[in-house]
């Protein structure tokens, strides 16, 4: 299991924004950690001229932003066993923030003018400082989630790209064509998505710089899915005479090289650049299972054996493990398995919500997934250790949300 290493570095330094520190405390999280440091938050208001509802909004935004980091177990009040205590004091028009360890070590101390209508900015600033000092990873704050929505009233579909912290979103594509498959390129430069136009699946490439979409030329056959190998080539799934194969398609050419081709249905290719292996879903054993092909040796290994339907594999950012959805008693549950298949554990435990289509946060500490409840699909998130399972969007019940893809891409914050 991944481990947390605590290093206390006795160094003195100062910055333009923050005063002198007595110590610099560094929590190094190797990959994804099951055990999170507990952070207690205290709020105090003194002689305050700010409206109570504005203070309540700041509390809500700070709690939510820290929670979204996925790096702490957040407590709303003082806890004796808390690793850190964050104290915020609002007095007149000033905000004072201090953070102390259980041993009394000061992490940082901030005093700044408080403008109540900038609650998101203060929450972001505090969270960013905590992460940069303690975890040295702030990727989660500069990330974007792409997903599909379906308006069941208007029968209209949209491709949304959202900031998971503030729920701000842009909608580069919205029309009546059915959309599937948003998949970020690993550096966030491009986004794959598919539309059904004239009863055919067509693949498009969307630039995150210009938000212009370009159609991808596909080889012959019925296209059913795609994922990235790198920014220059794709793994695509094409069907021929009832069976489907996985091919490698350079973006500069229509000529594809078949990678997986036999008398079975093979789909959902997911490439791991660290191990040079490809996960895919196949019915070759008589049931739908997940397999892994070594692209160097061409050996194929069956990864899942539990249940009769396992699907939606998704590699973690480190490539050490992958998440997937397994159907049990008509309900999908998300599991996590190591890359070699030797370790496996159940992540979600919600019998009333079917959990599918997992995607990892850039820091590997959270997973967003599609949860289906009473036929309605919404996006949910859960910590890597199985805690803090919650819905992350606020759309009305007639809006379905599905196919999330999470990447480090800063569209929202300075």
SSE layout:
Elements: E1 4-9, E2 24-29, E3 38-46, H1 52-69, E4 73-75, E5 84-91, E6 94-101, E7 106-113, H2 119-134, E8 143-151, E9 156-162, E10 169-175, E11 178-184, E12 190-197, E13 200-207, E14 213-215, E15 222-230, E16 233-240, E17 243-250, E18 257-260, E19 266-272, E20 277-282, E21 289-294, E22 300-302, E23 310-315, E24 321-328, E25 331-338, E26 344-346, E27 354-360, E28 366-373, E29 376-383, E30 390-391, E31 399-408
Parallel strand pairs: 3-4, 3-5
Antiparallel strand pairs: 1-2, 5-6, 6-7, 8-9, 8-31, 9-10, 11-12, 12-13, 13-14, 15-16, 16-17, 17-18, 19-20, 20-21, 21-22, 23-24, 24-25, 25-26, 27-28, 28-29, 29-30
Helix pairs in contact: 1-2
Can you walk through the features of this model?
It is a single chain. A hairpin with a 4-residue loop joins strand 19 and strand 20. This protein has a 5-stranded mixed β-sheet with strand order 4-3-5-6-7, covered by helices on one side. The protein is mostly beta strands. It has helices spanning 52-69, 119-134; strands at 4-9, 24-29, 38-46, 73-75, 84-91, 94-101, 106-113, 143-151, 156-162, 169-175, 178-184, 190-197, 200-207, 213-215, 222-230, 233-240, 243-250, 257-260, 266-272, 277-282, 289-294, 300-302, 310-315, 321-328, 331-338, 344-346, 354-360, 366-373, 376-383, 390-391, 399-408. Helix 1 (52-69) runs parallel beside helix 2.
């Amino acid at each position: 299991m991944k481990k947390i290493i605590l290093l206390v570095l006795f160094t003195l330094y100062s910055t333009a924004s923050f005063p002198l520190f007595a110590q610099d405390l560094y929590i190094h999280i190797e990959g994804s950690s099951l055990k999170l440091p507990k952070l207690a938050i205290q709020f105090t208001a003194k002689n305050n001229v700010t409206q109570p509802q504005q203070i309540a909004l700041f509390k809500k935004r700070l709690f939510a932003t820290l929670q979204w980091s996925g790096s702490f177990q957040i407590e709303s009040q003082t806890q004796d066993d808390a690793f850190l205590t964050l104290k915020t004091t609002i007095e007149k028009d000033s905000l004072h923030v201090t953070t102390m360890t259980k041993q009394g070590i000061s992490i940082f101390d901030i005093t700044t003018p408080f403008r109540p209508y900038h609650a998101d900015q203060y929450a972001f600033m505090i969270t960013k400082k905590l992460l940069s000092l303690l975890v040295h990873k702030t990727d989660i704050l500069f990330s974007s989630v792409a997903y599909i929505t379906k308006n069941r009233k208007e029968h209209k579909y949209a491709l949304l790209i959202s900031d998971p912290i503030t729920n701000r979103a842009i909608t580069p594509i919205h029309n009546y064509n059915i959309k599937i498959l948003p998949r970020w390129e690993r550096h966030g430069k491009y986004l794959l998505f598919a539309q059904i136009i004239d009863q055919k699946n067509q693949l498009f490439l969307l630039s995150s710089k210009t938000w212009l979409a370009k159609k991808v030329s596909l080889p012959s056959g019925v296209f059913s899915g795609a994922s990235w190998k790198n920014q220059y080539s794709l793994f695509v799934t094409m069907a021929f005479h009832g069976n489907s194969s996985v091919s490698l398609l350079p973006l500069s050419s229509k000529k594809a090289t078949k990678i997986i081709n036999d008398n079975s249905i093979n789909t959902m290719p997911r490439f791991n650049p660290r191990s040079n292996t490809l996960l895919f879903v196949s019915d070759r054993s008589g049931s739908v299972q997940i397999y892994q092909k070594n692209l160097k040796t061409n050996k194929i290994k069956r990864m899942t054996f539990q249940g009769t339907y396992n699907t939606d594999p998704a590699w973690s950012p480190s490539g050490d493990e992958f998440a997937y959805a397994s159907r049990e008693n008509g309900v999908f549950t998300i599991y996590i398995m190591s890359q070699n298949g030797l370790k496996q554990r159940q992540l979600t435990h919600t019998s009333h919500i079917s959990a599918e289509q997992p995607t990892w946060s850039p820091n590997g500490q959270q997973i967003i997934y599609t949860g289906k409840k009473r036929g309605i699909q919404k996006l949910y998130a859960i910590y890597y250790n199985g805690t803090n399972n919650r819905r992350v969007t606020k759309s009305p019940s007639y809006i379905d949300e599905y196919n999330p893809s999470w990447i480090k891409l800063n569209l929202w914050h300075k």
